[in-house]
Amino acid sequence: MLSLLALMVATGCGGSRSDFIGSRAKDVCDAEWPVCSKVAGCILGTESYVEGRLPGKGQFIVQLPEASSVRVRFFLEDVVASGEETVVTFHEEGCRARIRESVSGRTALDLAEKVGEFSREVELTGVGDHLVEFESDMQARYVLKVEVEPLRNR
């Protein structure tokens, strides 16, 4: 059953890994960018993506020139276990506020099965560098990308 589940996620209805990545370039996320009294490994935008393994956690910066909707999207592969919880925390510039988006492991996996990915989205109003952190006890490989849409376009 678990093997079938993993196969369904890897070949999900949302398309393939290469469809998910598109023309984006891989960022190894091993730099040191200061943000919010922390250090993030990369700045992600519409032209880059990162990949890794869960369970684990990560952080990156999203730069916003204006108030925008920010969506973090995960494509899952080789899922072994759904885990209990996946959390994505979005910080306003300067970490003056944060929005914590939590989803159960089962819900994240169900979304990935149905549409080929799962995502979390929030509206951030500040201009500048925004720290985004994620953590999950799911056992899987992931590809992560970010989409940004200015609020004035909505």
What does this structure look like?
- This is Lipoprotein.
- By secondary structure, the protein is an alpha+beta fold.
- The protein has a single domain, classed as Jelly Rolls (Sandwich), CATH 2.60.120.380.
- The protein has 3 helices and 9 strands, in the order H-H-E-E-E-E-E-E-E-H-E-E.
- The strands form 2 sheets. Strands 1, 4, 5, 6, 7, 8 and 9 form a 7-stranded mixed beta sheet that branches. Strands 2-3 form a two-stranded antiparallel sheet.
- Strand 6 and strand 7 form a beta hairpin.
- The longest helix has 11 residues.
- It is globular and about 40 Å long.
- The N terminus is likely disordered.
Low-pLDDT segments, ≥5 res? 1-13
Helix/strand-derived category reads: alpha+beta
- Tell me the helix content: 10-25%
The count of DSSP E runs of length 2 or more, i.e. the number of strands, is: 9
Give the termini separation: 42 Å
- The ordered string of helix (H) and strand (E) elements is HHEEEEEEEHEE
Number of domains: 1
Instruction: Tell me about the largest β-sheet.
Output: 7 strands, mixed
Total number of helices: 3
The CATH topology name reads: Jelly Rolls
* Cα Rg: 15 Å
Summarize the structure.
The protein has 154 residues and is an alpha+beta fold. It has helices spanning 2-10, 17-21, 105-115; strands spanning 25-26, 33-35, 38-40, 48-64, 68-81, 85-91, 98-104, 118-124, 128-150. The chain has one domain (2-153): Jelly Rolls (Sandwich).
